Structure formats: C-alpha cells, structure tokens
Here is the input.
Amino acid sequence: MNDWITIGKLEDIPPQGARVVQTAAGEIAVFRARSDAVFALANRCPHKGGPLSEGIVFDHHVACPLHNWKISLESGEAMAPDQGCARRYAVRVESGTVQLNLNI
Amino acid sequence: MKEKLVLIGNGMAGMRTIEELLKLGSDLYDITVFGAEPHGNYNRIMLSPVLSGETQFDDIVLNKREWYAEHGITLHAGRKIGKIDRVRRQVVAEDGTTAPYDRLLIATGSRPFILPVPGHELPGVVGFRDIADVQTMLDTAGSHRHAVVIGGGLLGLEAAVGLAKRGMKVRVVHLSDTLMDRQLDAAAGALLRQELEGRGVEFLMGAKTKEIIGRQRVQGVLFEDGREISADLVVMAAGIRPDMELARSAGIHCERGIVVNDTMQTYDPRIYAVGECVQHRGQTYGLVAPLFEQAKVCANHLAKFGIGRYQGSVTSTKLKVSGVDVFSAGDFLGGPESEQIVYRDPGAGIYKKVVLKDNRIQGAVLYGNTLDGAWYFQLMRDGADVSAFRDQLLFGQAHLGDAGHGGNSPVAMMADSAEVCGCNGITKGAIVEAIRAKGLFTLDEVRAHTKASASCGGCTGLVEQILASVVGSDASQGERTRPMCPCTEHSHDEVREAIRARHLTSMEQTMHELDWHTPDGCPSCRPALNFYLLSTWPTETKDDSASRFVNERLHANIQKDRSYTVVPRIWGGVTTPAELRAIADAAEKYNVPMVKITGGQRIDLVGVQKEQLPAMWADLNAAGMVSGHAYGKALRTVKTCIGSQFCRFGTQDSVQMGIDLEKFSWGSWTPHKFKMAVSGCPRNCAEATIKDFGVVAVDSGWELHVGGNGGVKVRVTDLLCRVNTSAEVLEYCGAFMQLYREQAHYLERTAPWIERVGLDYVKKQMVDDDANRTALYQRFVESQRIAQNDPWAERTGEARRAEFMPLTVTNVGRVSAA
Ligand code: SRM
Ligand SMILES: Cc1cc2nc3c(=O)[nH]c(=O)nc-3n(C[C@H](O)[C@H](O)[C@H](O)COP(=O)(O)OP(=O)(O)OC[C@H]3O[C@@H](n4cnc5c(N)ncnc54)[C@H](O)[C@@H]3O)c2cc1C
Ligand code: SF4
Ligand code: FES
Here is the structure.
C-alpha cells in the first residue's frame, strides 16, 4: 500500500524555511529545519490562523509571523505558556524527494 | 560518570545558580544540596509580607521538595554543613552526613548582626532572617505586647510595621538621626518617620543600646544614656554579616566576605561562591538583583561555557511597606562635585532628589511618589545624558511628551483591570498575579509567562515598574548588560563588539564563537545578528534571508488575512501622472481590494496575494518604480513640503532636497526603521521635527534635526547643527545614519538611542570631529554601493518567482480508500 504523495525535491524547500502545498486535506506547510529534517503542519496557526509557512524556523520550531507564537514542528503544539495545536502530517525524504502522507 | 556538584546553602542565590545551570541544559553534574533550614527554597524577600499577614509561607516557596526530586537533585534540608574537607574533596554535615564533590558551591548567605551586649542571648531576642525568626515573632505577638526593634534600616522598619500590624506596641531604636540612613537623606528620612509614627510606631533616635535585661526571657532594654524601656521581644536588625566561617575554617581566603573573582570562583578554583556571603571586587551585596547576576555568571562557568563575567552591580532599594513609597539608588547624598535637583511638596508628602554629575544621574531618593524610580535607575545604569530634559527630570517621564503608554503610566495608581500590554491585552492584575504566583523576578520571565511586553515592547518600562513594585527591588538588568535574548549571555553591545573585533562574518560562526545555547538561535536574535553582521562587514557578509521576518523576506507587509501590501517608492513624495497610471493599472489588473494614501506620502496597494507579488512588481518596475521598503528596518519615506519652487514662504527647495536624500539613502538597512522629512521653512509642513532625521530650511541654509519619533512614544527631535549647502545635508545625513547603524541596538530607534548615548555624544562624533564625520560618511557610501539594489527587480525573474508559488503534487500514490 502506498499512501505517500511526492511534492517535490528537498532543495525546493529553502533551508530554515518552508513551502506550502495544496492537498485534499487543505493547505499544508512543509518545513525544512537547519538539520535538513522535514516536518509538515496544517498551515494555520492555532492562535488566529496565521500562515506558519512564512514564519522564522529555528531548531525544530517556527515562530508565527502574525503574533510570534512559537509552534513545535515535531508536535504542532504551541510553546508554553500559549496553548493550541496545529495538525501535523507525516512527511519523509525518500532519495531526495519529499513525500507527504495524509493518512497517518 | 557525571561530575558531582554540591551546593551548601539552600537559599536564593545558590538555588538560582542551580536553576540557571538547568536552564542552560547542562547535564554535566549530579547535584546535591545541603540547607540548614528544614524547607525547600523560599523567597526570603517576602518574609516581610508574611510577618505583616499580607501573604503566607506556602505562597513564597520557590521550589518544593518534589521539584528537587523531579530534577534529580538530592536535597538534604535541615542538615547544616560543619566542615569542608578540601583534601578529600567532601563536605561533612553536623549530623555526620558526607558528600563528595568535584565542584563545590558555597552560598551560605549572611547572618543578622546581633549586638554583643549583655543579655543578647536571652529568649525573646531574635534576628530577622528566616522563617523561624518570623515564627518566633508571630508567637510572641500572640501572647505579648511590647516589641523593640534595634535598627531603623530597611529590615528593621519592615519588621516594625509588620509587628505593629500584628497588634504589638513597637518602638524602633536607631543609632543615627535619620531612618534608613544608608538609603535616605535627612529630608526623606524625616518624612518616613512622620508617616510611620502615624501608624503607631515610636522612635528613639540617637539611642545606643547598653544592655538587654531580663531573667527567663527579655524584659527590657537599657541605653547608655540611662533610659530604659520594657520589651517582650527584641528584634535585632542592626545589619548583616556575610556568613563565611565555614569557608574560612576550610582555609579559603576571606576578607569581609568570601573573596571571589569575576567567574565567581574562590581561591580554590574548584570552589565557587555566590550570594551575600561573597566579596567581589571589594563589594558585598545585600539585595537579590546583584546576586542573581552572580548566579547567572556562575552557572555559565559551571556549565563550562566560560564566557560570562560578573563585573559588579549598581543597586536600588525600595521599602516594602504597603502605602509607603520610598525609592533609593546610587550616590543619593552627592558631594561637592555633583549637583542636586530637589522637588519638595510637604503638603502632599512628596520629596524627590536626583544627584547629577556632568548631566548624568549618580543617585536618587524618592519619597511619596516613586513612579519614576525605575526610569531614573535605568538612566543611571545606562549612564545616559539627561541635559536635553534636565528641567523636566523631576516631573517624571510622563512629562516628556508622551502620546501613548510608553512605560510611564502611574503604576501604583493603575487599577488591576487596566490594560498594560495593548498588543496582547494583558492587565496589570494579571501581571501582578503571575509575578506572585509563579515567583517571577525578571522581565524575560514575565514576558514568557504573561506575554506582556513580548510583542511591540512599548510597555516594557511599565512592566518593569510593576515588577519592581511587587518584587521590592528592581530585579532586572540594565540595557547595557542585559543578554540580547535567552539564547546567549551576551548583551547587544558585547555581540557587536565581538563581531567587529573577531572579524565574524557569518551567523554560524558568531553563534559558535560566542557559545550560543541554542543550535540556531531564535526569532529575536537571528534578525539582530543578521543586521549586525551586514552592517559591520557589508562586503563580506551574505544576507541570511531565513533570519528575516516575513515582511523583509518577501519585501511586502503581511496582513492579518495572509495577503500583502505593495508600496512603491514615491521619491520625496512627488509623483507623475504616468506613475499614477501605472499604479492604477496594476491595481485593476490584480484586483487590489484597497488603494490607500499612506501617512508617509505614498500609495499602498493593500490585499495582494503572495503569488501575485512578482508579476505586479515586474509591472511597476516596467513603469520605472522600485520597492518602497515600507516593510523594512530600513529607510522608509522622505516626506517633503512644497518648498521654494512654489510656496510663497519657502526659503529652499525642500522637494529637491527630499528627492536627493531619498535617492542617496534608500536601500540601507538600519537597526530600526528610519524616516526623514524636509520642510521648506520653519512652518515645517513636512513635520520634520518628529523624524529620525529632519531637515528644516532657513534663509541661510538648513537646520538638521535628529532623534524624532512619532508612533508609540512621541519625541521631538534635537537640533544637531546648521549647515549651508545641500551637499552638506547629504554628508551629515550619511554620517548620522552610519553612526546609528554602527552603534544602536537592533530594534532601537534613533529616539531611544539618542536618549541612551546623549546628544552631546552624537555631536562629538559627527559635528565637532570633521575627520570622523567624513569617515562615517564614506563607510555609509561604501555600504550603499552594495545595498542599493531594487529587491523587486531581483525577484521578478522566472527562477526567483518559483519561491512565491506553492509546491505542486507531482506524483500521487494510491490513496487507500477511506
Ligand atoms: C501604511 C501605513 C499606514 C497608512 O496607511 O498611513 C503604516 C502601516 C503600518 N505601520 Fe506605521 N504605517 C505608516 C506610517 C506610520 C507613521 C507616519 C509617518 O511615517 O510619517 C508612523 C509614526 C511616525 C514614526 O514612525 O515615528 C508610524 C508608526 C508605526 C509604528 C510605531 C513606531 C514607533 O517607533 O513607535 C509601528 C510599529 C513598529 O514599527 O514596530 C508601525 C507599524 C506599521 C505596520 C508595519 C504594522 C505591521 O507590522 O504590520 C503597518 C503595516 C501595514 C501595511 O501592511 O502597510 N507604524 N507608521 C503608513 C506607511 C507609510 C509609508 O508610506 O511607508
Ligand atoms: C526580611 C527580609 C526582607 C528582604 N527584602 C529584600 C528586598 O525587598 N529586596 C531585595 O533585593 N532583597 C531583600 N532581602 C535580602 C535578600 O533576601 C537576600 O539578599 C538574599 O536572600 C540572599 O541570598 P543568599 O542565597 O545569599 O542567602 P540566603 O537566601 O540567606 O540563603 C543562604 C542559605 O544558606 C543556609 N546555610 C547557611 N550556612 C549553611 C551551612 N553551613 N550548611 C547548610 N546551609 C547553610 C541558610 O540557612 C540559608 O538558607 C530581604 C531579606 C530579608 C531577611
Ligand atoms: S496604526 Fe499602523 S499598525 Fe496600527 S492598525 Fe493602523 S496601520 Fe496597523
Ligand atoms: S496567528 Fe499565529 S501567533 Fe497569532
């Protein structure tokens, strides 16, 4: 069974940055940390819906561009003391291509 | 195996060091803590409110026993260390418990000084140092009536008021004629005395204690002059002595305290000491703010980062007696070299004195109205030049022309429901509650827990005042020494200096050389570092777009609905029908929802989608227009008025001057945004006197004004100088921008920067010193050579456009049926 969809190459995503992709599950932001680890979150900040894809990526976090909430790329959770969670999606890099899986 | 770290003294400084060490993520040590008191660590400062009944012991505990367990720390509460065995490297408690150490931290605090007069050992004589002392006082207050407090200093008065509130008849005995004479001058001391007398406390001034009398327990106090008063309780608050006996007996060098160096190490480098037991550069301290600074440095060294240095502290004090406002800092008496500015309103019970030397604050005493204490203290620590507002100084910061809440609303008078942080909607009550409930001490902690002042920072001053009013003394650090963010120990100035001196040209290198605690910084340090690197080494540094806020990365302002704005440059506020047509065409072609005239004399196309930006820029480029940097920490607008070309009053061509200035300076990155204006005559229709650099034409030439600000906190410019020619205006403008670029902190606009360094300093650098001005100007011109590229033109090519588009799904695997 293959639920993985290919969305591009790792180089398409700027390091310490993100790109968005429109999917059946809505707009998803795919992040690339400095370590080249990739993460995928629904592109809506749990605070007021800011586009997380445009935030500054640091370590495994992103700072929302609207009001600076800090969201964990690993869990989608806002960093304390803020509370809220952006849905996360499975993402992997397979021989240089970035693949998303909306079903796990 | 991990090394063993042992802490002796489970108090405020020692435990703060451990917390800082944990915060640094250090996993180097197995930690063991010995405390003579049978509790977890508590906030000693708050013993006064416990005594007076305003709070309870449970509320002042900082770390419960469970906390130690959760962090894998072994706590021996109630075990006093009797010996340090430096040969075997172990400590031995009085009950025989031993613990080996690789590194040892001594934080034994101090002891109350008990006058060695006959009778001082009688039951009923106590110091005021720990919760056991408070308990003794409370027990006595329940069954007895007469209390005598020896010592009319900070602690003595807090004890006196607390005991009076508990129903005792209190007499304070004080050797000098002025209460709190180490913090107050005679005038303020007298006001304080009056106030406390009104609350039923009696004073015996100039009285020297000879003997404490009593058989089973205290019965009275006898003075040298023969006077005698009855007493059931005697509180000794005649000073404190660093507790260094343990260290001394282990052969560690001590003078008035345990002597330490700038990394908080004693003469035995395995042994550190922090807190009141310490003597650093000849100074001992008795307030928490400096001890916390020591803790930070010590933790840094223990974590083997080894970059922090403690350089001594300037302190301020505040009396924690509700309804009595006293503030004191620095050299409050003044000497023949200094000047004193005094304000007295005996009717209202207000007294203020500020001591100045060379127009810089040396010290201050405030009584009755201490709202501006934090402000004076800040000016003092920063060594700020106050000549520009000297005549207003005593009326307070609020009088300096302030349209918004720039940090000066009267904090004590504010209702709990009053909003302090407009950005995050945080009330005063919520901040006070968080400080109390969570035991917060610093601005960063308040920001993390409440979000107050975490956004625009406009309310920082106010939050600091609230912090000071709750915690008692100003626990925060000065701008010059405060770390730029929690990722580092270094202040803005230190980082800038390191980048320059060590020739650092990349972010990675800087973080590595300066031992950043985090792998790649945070959203507050990265943009700052990027700017410092670019402005210091413009030809060698590569701009790091991942460290820029979205607006600067995408060259457009993000809006709440994720759309963007496009603002072309309109040089000097002058446009043409052709440009207007091109703007109108673009607005129609891309269905722009709003076309707005901005407050900066240009046009804003609002509500553009990200994907549309490159195409729209290309269209505007084609009509000869470039990016207006309305989004950047960069040159924004140069507003102009009509000037001599047409206006009947105009003395010079302000329009041309404005256009020339904008063409000369656009594209330059600055610490914060930078705005200019040129007016054709002193009627000043372009509002040049609230701009970062304002030019006002006069008959004979141009007046140059600097450091103005509209916005959150309005500040009118200072007059820098007068020049004759347009060429000079450009030269001074370039030099001023370069000085600002090289020296201000990131996100510090010219107004606060000038208040910090002083107008005289700026004049010395670029008006009096012709050679330096020329050099500054040339450095500016050099960096402009690289900076003046239209960011729009750079991003309209096909390759770069892709970045603005979403990724597309190129291969869809078989999606399992739902
Ligand atoms: C568009 C404009 C309002 C308007 O329609 O008139 C505007 C819009 C914004 N201003 Fe402003 N300011 C605008 C003129 C001003 C002025 C007036 C002026 O420049 O003559 C001021 C007061 C003058 C001053 O700065 O000293 C002003 C003081 C501020 C401040 C407070 C700055 C301060 O030092 O206190 C902020 C907040 C900040 O920069 O941190 C701010 C921030 C903003 C931001 C960037 C907020 C943000 O981060 O999103 C707004 C962006 C909206 C957008 O997307 O365009 N804006 N803003 C004006 C653009 C002028 C231009 O042509 O570039
Ligand atoms: C009533 C009161 C009010 C105050 N108000 C203010 C204020 O408003 N603002 C301000 O800034 N400061 C205030 N202070 C001062 C502040 O509390 C101290 O500066 C601070 O607590 C000193 O910290 P420290 O760690 O050096 O000492 P401490 O906090 O005293 O900690 C030392 C600890 O070491 C323990 N110890 C000593 N010897 C041994 C040993 N041999 N073995 C094991 N443990 C040992 C002690 O029992 C104690 O618990 C106040 C102090 C008091 C008493
Ligand atoms: S004043 Fe400026 S920042 Fe505030 S809403 Fe208006 S444009 Fe936005
Ligand atoms: S929408 Fe993300 S922080 Fe407000």
